[in-house]
Amino acid sequence: MKKFRFVLLLLAFSTLFLNPAPGVYASPFELAHDDGEFDYGWSDFYPYAAAVRFSPPSQSWRITGIRLHGVCILRGSQVFYVEIWDANLNTKYQSAFSPSSVFKNATLDWYTIELPNIVVTGDFYVVIVPMFTLDGAQLWISIDDDPPFSNSSFIVNVGEHTIHVSLNATSKRPGDFMIRVVGEPTPSPPELRLASIEAGVDETVLTFTYPGELAGFGARLVKPDGSSVEENVTRVGENLVVRTGGEGLLNVFAVAKGFGTIGMSIRLNHSLRTAYRALFENYTVLKHDAESMCEQIGSLIKDSGELRLQLSQSQALIRVQDERINELLGNVSSLRSELDNVRAEASRLRGESTLLAAGLVFAIIVSSLLGFLEVGRRWRRR
Prior knowledge:
It is a single chain. By secondary structure, the chain is an alpha+beta fold. It has 3 domains: 1-187, Jelly Rolls, CATH 2.60.120; 189-268, Macroglobulin (MG2) domain (Immunoglobulin-like, Sandwich); 271-382. Helices cover 34% and strands 37% of the residues. It has 2 helices and 21 strands. The strands form 4 sheets. Strands 1, 2, 4, 7, 9, 12 and 13 form a 7-stranded antiparallel sheet that branches. Strand 16 and strand 17 form a beta hairpin.
């Protein structure tokens, strides 16, 4: 019965969508997986939530509202959350609602939650976070457990953005959450893109880019305990700049003129800021080391200049010494030549001296003989 009803809806939509007048789109209608008959209710503490996946019959889809079957015990000031996730389980929209603004106390029925024209592309999830408490409001979401099952209902962890349990046909307790979405096809809007993240010691600055006109914008940080806080957002040209010092899931939305509300989410945790602090400390140490090295390099450059000057002076002295050595070598060569001449002269003189000595000896001998002869002659005369 459910599948037949859903097919009829699709056929009706196909007729409207495939033959639209130029610039005109069909009126909003429901996408549903349940058969409209309640079987039992589900609820749980944060961070668990009910999620239903939808595949719209057009690439871009404008969500105008959520239809929810359930019952709520109204007490206290506790809120519940409605989120829209994309096919990758990233938040496209998130908002808190007071149970008393939506539900009648302890009355099981269908309820409508109007949304500000949320634009999605491709498959998406509608997520209801009941925020169940023992002493506050208690929201119970209806489940249809009659086959056939759509295999599109899940219990998710909104803190980690993961699927906790699937209610498909092979699970221990299959079923379909009685959550429906109201919407219509829409032209594809420009995307809201994350351009940069700058993590500081006390805050993180995120820059998102949207090239079209905006009628409004904002950002909400969902903290790990489920509470939320509005963050500061400024428009700078085509950029949306978000500054936050908190931790959790940051949901950024922009109201695009002619399209509706588009959004995206990014998870922030202290590990990013801790890593930044560590990097900043390392940077400070490296900067100090770099300054010290620069001083050492400056000192070495100065020493190098002095050494270069000394080397230049030494080279000049070496050149002078070389000239002196060359001059001395020339003098030595000249003296060696003179010494050779002196030696030759001395050798000649020694020869002459030998001849003179021989002559002198001969003369003495001759003189001595002549003397003896003269003496002998005189003795004979006597």
